[in-house]
Specification:
The protein contains eight helices and eleven strands. 25% of the residues lie in helices and 28% in strands. The chain is globular. Strand 1, helix 4 and strand 2 form a beta-alpha-beta unit. It has 242 residues and is of the alpha/beta class. Helix 6 packs parallel to helix 8. The chain has a single domain, classed as Vaccinia Virus protein VP39 (Rossmann fold, 3-Layer(aba) Sandwich), CATH 3.40.50. The strands form three sheets. A seven-stranded mixed sheet has the order 3-2-1-4-5-11-10, with helices on both faces. It has a two-stranded antiparallel ribbon with strand order 6-7.
Length: 242
């Protein structure tokens, strides 16, 4: 998984994003993600690629008995720890998603928000999550949409006045490494087709019960550039049950 998030300049710019400053309420996908979260009362929760720890906090505030957030960015974890007061419930660990041990039948709910597009072998992660979930456990994740990751440099094609004309999709059926520019930094991601994502879950043993393409809520339409999000999907939300 990429660790550009430990780049000082990159991290400074990331810290200025609305979702970094204001948390879940400023995340355009939250109004669709939140209703898919099961009851967390008395549950054990694992957050893959926890970042600032917003979902860890949400789990603890909603009755989770144990929460583990893993991330391979030291800067992200330092920020998460600085925002956490209840250390009796929430634990943070410096660990990559691919390196975590995934102990068998340990967690009731596993969540991952905008992290799995940094993973090359996503099918192995799905199998490991299935193994680590208890019976009737739930896996909920949000990943960059395949239409987004298959684009050329993940950017629009603009007209002569700088207005976006269309979103290019190229090499869709050629999954793998992509290098793009994010917050002024060269970032490595991995493109996975929709077939890879859904079939990977089914092959791991999951039952997929919700698939949504994230759309920003009406109250965010005044944010500059947000209306462009309605012209092409940026994020894919999937919930699967063991």
């Amino acid at each position: 998984m990429s660790i550009e998030y430990d780049n000082e300049e990159f991290f400074k710019q990331y810290a200025e994003m609305p979702r970094s400053r204001d948390g879940l309420s400023a995340a355009g996908e939250w109004h669709q993600l939140k209703p898919l979260i099961p009851s967390l009362n008395g549950r054990a929760v694992l957050d893959l690629g926890c970042g600032y720890g917003w979902h860890c906090h949400y789990a603890a505030e909603n009755g989770a008995k144990r929460v583990l957030g893993i991330d391979m960015s030291e800067r992200m974890l330092a920020e998460a720890k600085s925002r956490t007061t209840d250390n009796s419930i929430i634990e943070y660990r410096l660990c990559g998603i691919e390196e975590y041990e995934y102990p068998e039948s340990t967690w009731d709910f596993v969540i991952s928000n905008l992290a799995l597009h940094y993973i090359e072998d996503i099918s192995s992660v799905f199998m490991n999550v299935y193994k680590t979930l208890r019976s009737d456990g739930v896996f909920l994740f949000n990943i960059e949409h395949p239409v987004f990751t298959a684009g050329v440099n993940e950017d629009w094609v603009y007209d002569k006045d700088g207005a976006p004309r269309f979103w290019p999709v190229d090499d869709y059926f050629m999954p793998g490494r992509r290098v793009t520019n994010f917050l002024g930094c060269s970032v490595v991601k991995y493109h996975h087709t929709l077939t890879q994502i859904i079939s990977g879950l089914l092959n791991a043993g999951f039952t997929v019960d919700a698939v949504e393409e994230a759309e920003p809520p009406e109250e965010m339409m005044d944010i500059p550039g947000m209306k462009d999000e309605l012209r092409r999907p940026m994020m894919l939300i999937v919930r699967a049950k063991k």
